[in-house]
Amino acid sequence: MTHKTYLRLSELNAAIAGVLGDAFGRHSFWLVADITSHTYKPTRQYHSFELVEKDEHAQQIVAKMSCKAWGLASGRIQKFEEQTGQRFGNDIHVLIRVQVSFHNVYGLSLNLLDIDAHFTLGVLARQRMATLERLVAENAFIQKEGERFRTRNSELPLPHVIQKIALISSVTSAGAEDFKHTLQHNTQQYRFEIDDYFSAVQGEANANQLLSGLLQIFHAQKDYDAVVIIRGGGAQADLLIFDNYEFGRAVAKFPIPVITGIGHQKDETITDLMAHTATKTPTRAAEFIIAHNKTFEDSTNALLKQMLLQAQQLLTAYFQELSRQNNILVNSTHLILNSYKDGLRQRSMENGHHTRSLLFGHKSRLLQVMAPLPPIFKGLLHNQAQKLNQVSVEVRSLAEARLRHEDLQLRQHCMWVRMMDRDFLLKKGFSIVYSEGKPVREPEQLRTGSKIDILMANTVVKAVVTEKRDKNG
Amino acid sequence: MDEHLTYEAAYNELVAITQEIESEEVSIDTLAEKVKRASVLIAFCQAKLKRTEKEVNNIITQMGNDV
Question: Which of the residues B7, B17, B36, B45 would you substitute to probe the A interface, choosing the one with the greatest number of A C-beta atoms within 10 Å?
Fold first, then answer.
């Protein structure tokens, strides 16, 4: 064995490098491949990964090569991420420009020079389209209507007032702070209850976390008025988590209205399309909720005003109707009273007339009757005359009886007067005693020894009183 | 006044009396009685309306204060 029978590895590698250099030189190639085993060292901005090609069924790897990107290429990747919303990492299908490189130590690899964002955007768009089609095809509660999607969630009625909110956002989300700040400093002074459900909101691999956040809300069994999904603006990269099939499906099916405030400027995410209401930013989501509540308040105020107005109109109508009834009542009552009064006056006037004419009629009829009295009336008159005669006879006899009675009394009086006559009395045997020429009427007129004259019918006896004593003594 | 009289009932009775009187179906013997009853009903209705109006106005005033 001589010294020349072997090469040093470095010599071989140099030879390979030379051949490869000759063959590929400084040429670069656009190639399509998938990425796996990706690592990134931020401090050196160094991407290391493998490119693979799979067979038609994406089962078997048919080609594989390691690849690196650093420096300018790393900047390209960053720009790509911003343009596509796609994080550069495993399992993405990319169009890249590479250069073949052979390193004595690290061996054969490719250096990434550039990456085509448009290609990936196309791929993503197709993926998104495919996901949407699958959502519609596999779920009865998702239907496509023109450019919009009708889902069970989007068909849910929003409560008139949104106050209890389940908020899905990342722990460090500035978007969530914007959302809460806007809600809690509303000029209407509406109050909100917000429960946080934290989840990563980027990284397609974190879709499961997002999904479990939604499930937690479901199992919390609280009467949330709405679920709000917030992701702050800023970097546009990595929105793909919201294009996830499973999460999109869960949102579409969710029984509580979902409002999104996912910061982005490009196409709406699938989550936006499946949700009840999609807004562009967290702040907009909060403004939407406040506006929604205000609409309700305004409508109730308007209803209240309308109702009160109607109540007043109704009252006015009632007052008028009551006053109308009152007027009818008063007028009708007066009418009735007047008609009764008129009737009475009329009747009394008629009565007067009637009476007079009746009297006149009787009189004239009497005159008429008087002249040629029919026999029957003559008879009547005769009867009347007879009755009159009877009465006059009775009157006469009564009068005579009366006269007789009066006459008798008169005679008695006469008799009495006659009896009082002096001569009549003297003749009857009475005598009158005189003393000193005067008739004695009192015993005091006489004393013992008094001279008295006793007058008798035809004789005067002169005597002297010898004794005077009481008749009973 | 009847305690459980409603506006509706009072008003209906009032209208009935008014119609009766308007059509001059009321005899002079019962006229005064009917008119008296009607006046009571009107007073009742008016009081009720005024009370309601006052309440409505109060609500409006209160609303004005709240806003």
Answer: B45
Tell me the C-alpha to C-alpha distance, in Å, between residue A179 and each of A222, A259, A286: 21, 12, 5
Give the pLDDT score at B3. 65
Mind listing the pLDDT tens digit for each residue in B2-53?
Answer: 567 898 899 899 889 888 888 877 787 888 888 889 889 888 988 988 888 8
Lookup: tokens for A320:
């008028």
Name beta bridge partners: A50.
A36, A66
Residue in B21, B25, B57 to test binding to A, most A beta-carbons within 10 Å: B21
Q: Alpha helices, DSSP H only, in A143-188? A: 152-155, 174-184
> Does residue A107 contact residue A55 with C-beta atoms inside 8 Å?
no
List all residues 6 or more positions away from A109 whose beta carbon is below 8 Å from its beta carbon.
Answer: A65, A66, A67, A68, A101, A102, A103
Establish if B31 touches chain A: CB-CB under 8 angstroms: yes
Contact A46, A68 (CB under 8 A): yes
What is the overall mean pLDDT for chain A? Answer: 86
Q: If you ran DSSP here, which 8-state letter would residue A8 be given?
A: -
Tokens of A1: 């064995």
Give which of A201, A207, A214 is closest to A174, Cα–Cα: A201
Query: Do the Cβ atoms of B59 and A308 come within 8 Å?
Result: yes
Among B14, B22, B63, the residue with its CB nearest the CB of A332 is B22
Cβ–Cβ contact B42 with A under 8 A: yes
Q: Can you list the alpha helix ranges (DSSP code H) found in A254-374? A: 270-274, 282-370
Residues of B in contact with A325 (CB under 8 A): 11, 14-15, 18, 42
What is residue A289's predicted lDDT score, i.e. its pLDDT?
95
Cβ-defined contact of A329 to B18 (cutoff 8 Å): yes
